[in-house]
Amino acid sequence: MASPASGAAPRLAVVGNPGNRRVTLFADAVRAAGLPAPRVVAWRDVLRDGGADFDAREVVRLDSPGEDDEVDRRLRGEGHAPTRVDGSARWYAGFLAAVAGLRGGRRLDDPDDLAVLFDKRRCHAVLRAAGVPVPASPTSGPGAAPVRGWDDVRELMRAHRLPRVFVKPAHGSSASGVLAVETAGGGRVRATTSVERAADGHLHNSLKVRRYDGEADVAAIVDALAPDGLHLERWLPKASQTGRAADLRVVVVGGRATHAVVRTSRSPLTNLHLGGRRGDLDAARAAVEAAGARWSDLLDVCERAAACFPRTLCVGVDLLPAVGWRRAAVGEVNAFGDLLPGLTGLPGSGAEGRDTYAAQVAEILRPHAEPAAGAGPRRPPAPDSGRAAGAHRPPRPPAPYSPPAPHREGPTDARLPSGR
């Protein structure tokens, strides 16, 4: 990126699926900032050509390769139906290889961060090591237990006294393949999931959340998912809003929590595409304050999670508020968690009036902007007394995001998984 002193605006490029809403929303934000439209490099071309080249002056954003059947086939393999749940390990290896083939430019999404963000076991271990509150898990960190199938899941639940767990594909996203598993006396087992088991035994994603009662059905699903790698987490009881389980997606841009949305559901899966609804953010803030906690402390948890990935401009943090709204844990950190159309920034975040994409463009441009006369710090502190319930006053200012040096071909960090 050009030096701030030069005053030269950056040249932007985005690797994504042309015409996809993510690419369109980012391009709209770039143009609205008075910049030329970003150069769009298609994932299908990257996968076909074995990479892509960028000018050293280009600032390169990576967007999700999802929602494109051709790209999915290239990542998972020909003949693999796009609705199939399995194949995520192959997708992960293919995605990392494609990212490693991007040469030059200055990245907004660090390749080694992505390798961790798309492995739930490794991400959980990184967060836990940094002191970020996370659900208990027997499958992350040194000495993590292998999960070869349902028998291992059953034994881990017993050994760690986990009567309720989330079973997650290690490299999944958007709740694909996730099961909320409960056990009870008499050997009873129940799982809530969006997985649909076809007559041929293949597992498919569905927009309908369903329940499987009976150990045989649950075991068959887990056994089919296990070859791709599985991650187990304690199923934490969540806070509720209007009688529905509630959690939050918090977007962190440049180290600062800028956007948040409450997601509610009558099922354990709150994803909006699975029937979850947007909840009342003001009511959530009020519930936190009424419980004697501080809203800023919840946002700080998200910023601490994002700080584990300092070379990546933007992440989406899934925050799980506990019953009573006093405490919260981080469920996941998402590399492409910024798709919240029409949602504007939190009060005091510096992103007021901007959607998630405009906030990222503003952060990219921030080193190039001359401070206004008399301008104060990025996030001036406010006194505790009298501040609005939604005001964002974290206990420490985050360090400004700075893209890494131009990337060269090949892996750059030992954190990349071996053999992939």
TrEMBL record:
InterPro entries: ATP_grasp_subdomain_1 (IPR013815), STM4014-like (IPR047778). GO terms for molecular function: ATP binding. Residues 367-420 are annotated as: Disordered. Residues 396-405 have a biased composition (Pro residues). It comes from the Bacteria. Coiled coil: none annotated. NCBIfam families: fam_STM4014. This is ATP-grasp domain-containing protein.
